[in-house]
Amino acid sequence: xxxxxxxxxxxxxxxxxxxxxxxxxxxxxxxxxxxxxxxxxxxxxxxxxxxxxxxxxxxxxxxxxxxxxxxxxxxxxxxxxxxxxxxxxxxxxxxxxxxxxxxxxxxxxxxxxxxxxxxxxxxxxxxxxxxxxxxxxxxxxxxxxxxxxxxxxxxxxxxxxxxxxxxxxxxxxxxxxxxxxxxxxxxxxxxxxxxxxxxxxxxxxxxxxxxxxxxxxxxxxxxxxxxxxxxxxxxxxxxxxxxxxxxxxxxxxxxxxxxxxxxxxxxxxxxxxxxxxxxxxxxxxxxxxxxxxxxxxxxxxxxxx
Length: 305
Description:
It is a single chain. The chain has helices at about 1-15, 20-55, 65-70, 80-95, 105-115, 120-125, 145-150, 165-205, 210-215, 220-255, 260-265, 275-300; strands at about 60, 95-105, 135-140, 155-160. It is an alpha+beta fold. Helix 1 (about 1-15) crosses helix 10, helix 2 packs antiparallel against helix 8 (about 165-205) and helix 8 (about 165-205) packs parallel to helix 12. The longest helix has about 45 residues, at about 165-205.
């Protein structure tokens, strides 16, 4: 009988404050969708880091004849065969080095033509203008500075470049976007909490006569508060369910179908469905507990029992 009464009161309360209830559902759905999206973005960045950092190379570019005329680092002339052999020997002795590959001027020219063959500059380049290089795969990508210290400024070396630096800029941008999403999420959560508190306050005020009678007949504080807390929890749970739907639909249409980024950007290792599904219980639990707690503390101020 008591459970039936509580359920009936929940329905009455939701219908009585339909507009505010809808606002609560929408704000909770948007804020938790951003919350889930930020968690998935963090997973995506971590996945991309693990994938790309494992593939980055350190490149030692060697001086050619053109560099000897224009680059201060190559003031002593183009790299000699003895210098190349010494660089390769020194690389083989370093414990941080996993593999070393050599790219000749012809290979560099071929690769450049494959990537930028349509550009006007490609038509004016010749193989002798390209740089020879050693491409080093490190056992630990963080050990780039060891290579830079050993070879930067050496005779015959034009520059030492770390591809990881380029990736760090990309991941820095992605992390910045993620923090921006979290800031918007925090703002939406505050808005949702304010709406929940106001909804509970209006609901308690509109039913003050019923609660007064219940108080007079000896109803417990929890029995009086339960319908209000349950109303907020139900509205929040509906919003959380909508947020889960947003995440599932976004993953399906953005990565698998629709935009199909997994096919168009096959160089990116996208997160799988397991990452999405593991976030849904957390979102649902948050959508249930957050409004319930907000309603509980609001009732202590606006509903004297």
